[in-house]
Each structure stands twice: as C-alpha cells, then as structure tokens.
C-alpha cells in the first residue's frame, strides 16, 4: 500500500510503500516534545516528492538521525538514519500521513531517553 505524508503547509510531501504495523512512541528529548509516532521503513520505500532543498534538517546527540522538517510550518514528517545492522531507514511520523486512523494503530513505547 502507498501512503502519502506531508507537512502541515504541503511544502514537504512524500510517499511510503508498505503496510503500517506497529509504530513507536519514543520518549527521547525530541520525540516526546514533538509527539512523534514513528514507523520505520527501508529508506528505499520512502520517496520524497518535493525538492530536497525544501527540507530543513536537525541533528543532535550522536548526530546519527537526520530529523527533517519544513522551514515554513515547522512540521516534521520524517527522518533518516541507519538501523543497528547498518541499513538505511526512514522514520515516518505517521501523524503526518493523510487519512490515518491513529486509534487503529498498535503503539509500542520505546525508551529512547535512556539510550
């Protein structure tokens, strides 16, 4: 299934191939503040439909995750990094997916604060 995600103003748009299983609610300093619910997919499953130059990027701590956000509205639809095996992944903020039923998602807590 193809899902379409975007920032609030529509400047950043991407498509993601896959079925949303469980998502992660992380308590790290950025995810907790932003309220992200993250769905991790292979990076090749996410296609940015808008120019990459339209993204703003924030990194912190170990600088291994690129947190992408819109410079206009501030919304953060996705990030990029690598999984423990070294594979490129995209972390999709499912709250930015169009027509998502958040109540239907299985949410797993993740203790990112202690890591």
Concise synopsis of the structure shown:
This protein has 115 residues and is mainly beta. It contains 1 helix and 10 strands, in the order E-E-E-H-E-E-E-E-E-E-E.
Descriptive report:
- This protein is mostly beta strands.
- The chain has one domain: Metal Binding Protein, Guanine Nucleotide Exchange Factor, Chain A, CATH 2.170.150.70.
- Helices cover 5% and strands 40% of the residues.
- It is built from one helix and ten strands.
- The strands form three sheets. Strands 4-9-8-7-6 form a five-stranded antiparallel beta sheet, with no helix packed on it.
- A hairpin with a 6-residue loop joins strand 1 and strand 2.
- The longest helix is centred in the first third of the chain and has 6 residues.
- The model has no long low-confidence stretch (mean pLDDT 93).
Major sheet attributes: 5 strands, antiparallel
Compute the number of structural domains. 1
Q: How much β-strand is present in the residues?
A: 35-45%
CATH level-1 class: Mainly Beta
Number of helices: 1
Low-pLDDT stretches are: none
